[in-house]
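Batch manifest, entry 17 of 40.
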Amino acid sequence: MIRVENLTKRYGRVTAVDGVTFEVGAGSVTGFLGPNGAGKSTVMRMLTGLTPPTSGRATVLGREYRDLVNPGGRVGVMLDASAQHPGRTGREALVLAALTVGVPRGRVDEVLRMVGLSDDEAGRRVRTYSLGMRQRLGLAGAFLGDPEVLVLDEPANGLDPQGIHWMRTLLRGFADRGGAVLLSSHLLHEVQAVADDVVVIGRGRVVARGAVAELVAGEGTRVSSEDDAALAGALEAAGHAVSRTADGVVVDVEPAVVGRAALAAGVVVTDLRPHGAQGLEELFLRLTADDAREVAA
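Output type: structure tokens
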């Protein structure tokens, strides 16, 4: 549903985005990660027709965003939740957007309920909104039409833990119904909880992309049991390389193989997990270490 091919953006001698390529398929959530200044927002602006690329191409639903008929009805976009007229009420902002997209005014009430903004809150001026309320209003605008694709930049900013959980459920449900979500966020734990795939960029280039489960998985297996010595002996007898640690046994095979060996040896396993498995935060920090401002300082 989203295809980005060798997308590049230069500002004079500065290359902000350098040959970025990735895809977001139907029924999936893709986390778009990178340090501040890595080029994420520029990619999203090029994808949604706000910034022309220097070279390369970005398409949504098979066409460039500007070539879609009524793109607001098919692609829900939230790049800056604060980009609402502060003197309008939340409801007024959505009514104007509904007129632009060409959806009935009744849809405004539906999306307000969807994002949890009450009638009283919808009647207040946007200047009085908290950051979390602006985020909810921005999400309401993204869902106004009948979107097949969502492009969201930091949608969880300002949301409390309950709101973050709500947003995760909302996006996961949208993808499970066949939608495609491109989600930029610094909340890496939440990205790991909701995303199927991730794209990590640093200094304008893709430094990693793939399924979350594959990227964070380790190599080999760590296992603890009620008799580690017997289990290690059984694994070595089967021809596997084994090392003993204070926490159990590390072996260079998949967990299923270890489980079968333990069963055959009559050893009760108490813990079994991929060895070296890492969280998305650890992966992100390792991949983008050269771009971190703290390191540069």
